[in-house]
Fold this sequence. Notes:
By secondary structure, chain A is mainly alpha-helical. Helices cover about 70% and strands about 0% of the residues of chain A. Chain A has helices at about 1-5, 20-60, 75-85, 85-120, 125-135, 140-150, 155-165, 180-205, 210-220, 225-250, 255-260, 270-280, 290-320, and strands spanning about 60-65, 70-75. In chain A, strands 1-2 form a two-stranded antiparallel sheet. In chain A, helix 4 runs antiparallel to helix 10 (about 225-250). By secondary structure, chain B is mainly alpha-helical. Helices cover about 75% and strands about 0% of the residues of chain B. Chain B is built from 16 helices and no strands. Chain B has helices spanning about 1-5, 20, 25-65, 70-75, 85-95, 100-130, 135-145, 150-165, 170-180, 185-195, 200-205, 210-220, 225-240, 245-250, 260-270, 275-305. The radius of gyration of chain B is 26 Å and the shape is globular. The two termini of chain B are about 25 Å apart. Residues about 1-25 of chain B have low confidence and may be disordered. The chains are: A mainly alpha, B mainly alpha.
Amino acid sequence: MAEATTTPTSSPPGAVARPVLGRTQRRRRTEFWVYVFLLPTIVLYGLFTVYPIIGSYWYSFLDWNGFDAVKTWVGLANYREALADPLFWNAFKVTVLFTVVAVPVKVLGAFALALVLNSPRMPWKGFFRTAFFLPVVTTTAIVGVVMQFVFDPASGPINLILLKLGVIEEGINFLGDSDTALWTVVAVFTWKWLGQTLIYWLAALQTIPRETYEAAAIDGAGSGRMTRYITLPLLKPFVIIITLLTLESTLQVFDLMLTMTGGGPFFSTQVMEIFIYTQAFASAAPRLGYASAVAVVFGLFICLVGLLQLVGIRAAQKARASR
Amino acid sequence: MSQATDVSTPSGPTGGLSRSTRPVLPSSRRRGRWRQRIPVIIAVIVLLFLLVGWIYPFVWMVSAALKNPIEVFSSGLNLIPDEPQWDNFRRAWVDAKFGTYLLNTVLVTGFTVIIVVVRTAMTGYVLARYRFYGRRVILGILVATLFVPAGYTIIPVVDLATRLNLLNSIAGMVIALSGGAHVASILLYLGYFSRIPKELEEAAIMDGAGFLRTFFTVMLPLAGPVTATVTLLTFLSTWNAFFLPLVFTFSRPDLRTLSVGMLAFVGENSTDWSGMAAAATISLLPVVLLFVLLQRYFVEGIAGAVKS
């Protein structure tokens, strides 16, 4: 080790204090490189993730249209306005409604599919998994645009199929009717991302050793009882993690929503992100301060969800530890 | 579910293996086996139906891309075009500028992936293997910002980009996208590097490798599987990015990426269904092909989130 410390430093041979000097020198050099390695992340991440989070608070106290140099300090006025704005509460309601419906559908649907695909006697497992996963890799914004056409009331294939089957008399304006628009997006969203939750479940199911089932079979347990008494209890810790991962991804629906409905008709699909976007970029009189205030309130809401997540993961770890 | 039915035959703990070696028994056993197969057959049939519905939108898209613009409306549910219309692709590629959009997307994605892989690997490495001043603070900030929706931070990002002169440029998009949340990748590298035994590093130092050589010639090559996962996940999120490219290219239509170009295209040509379908096919084909070729890595990358 003593010789080793000197090798990287090309200090002149013959120096008496060579090993000691070499070591401290090397340590200092290492320290230097550690910070050099961190630099790209500190700069990039600091500028484009950490600063914007803090910056949002600053902007939320301003009245600013984004073009002028003039930014007026208005204190809490933006927050007061947001909390009194029916459109803000509408966006909040739509976001929560979307999440509350989409998450259970996705988690349970994927679970049922995973149970079937995890069966050792199921043929073409890899093929099915690939097919159900396919929508996950496709570009959400592109899919959203294509879906506008798929759900078209006059010539879209969904309506043509329903007409042919005799389910409906005339084409349904899925995305143009405020009663159906949100649910249509929920359906497409589930289709688009189910594969991801499916992979989570399959990974979770693979943690259960096959011997457990075999032992239960020797004891005379049937398939239904095995699912109930082995699979479900052993999956309990994963239920929390998977639900939370799914929840997190469900809060980000901007791409799909903007390309499928743009928030309409009559604000019926205007989720929070669309509301922020409209206020900040897509209106004739952009209000970046107000949009920031909305973003902060929404962000605090997500923080709350995140906190719940932390509690949830703790609970999951505890459940796993006590197993 | 039917995993259970498999082993419920009284064939002992060897399960499915014994099936071939099991002595031939009278018809009652065979009938039992048939009864066992029925749920599997039903499941396969149900899944096949589901599957057809699942990939139908893509099939419809490709079919519409090959039909002539009037045929899309008139042919109803018939998926096979009378005669493939390659002109739709020319229209999308040249007139609607999807060739340019594709190039922009490739450039943005390529550079972003390189920057993100290098930066997350370096960060994960030093966080995993060195104790230094500020380590815990950095870790804390990273974990706290693990999930931040794009919509929440977009306004300061745009303002910052304007002031740094990054708006309306490919380079600006790359820098902003690679600065976005890639915490999961850092954590993946961190976990992997912290499991590599210390002796390897010491051996490298013995051989005279400095800090940089140790990292680039010993540690980074060892982390190959993580690099594959991070590359794929970053590729996917960047190729599919929408919000940031949208607001970064408001005044420069020629810099649009595929996803942004698509929205603009239907905004301008809402009746050109076959052109839209051709453009969508051009946009989705690269990522779908890559997925089919490398699907194992995609699946492992996604599954990693649960396992860790």
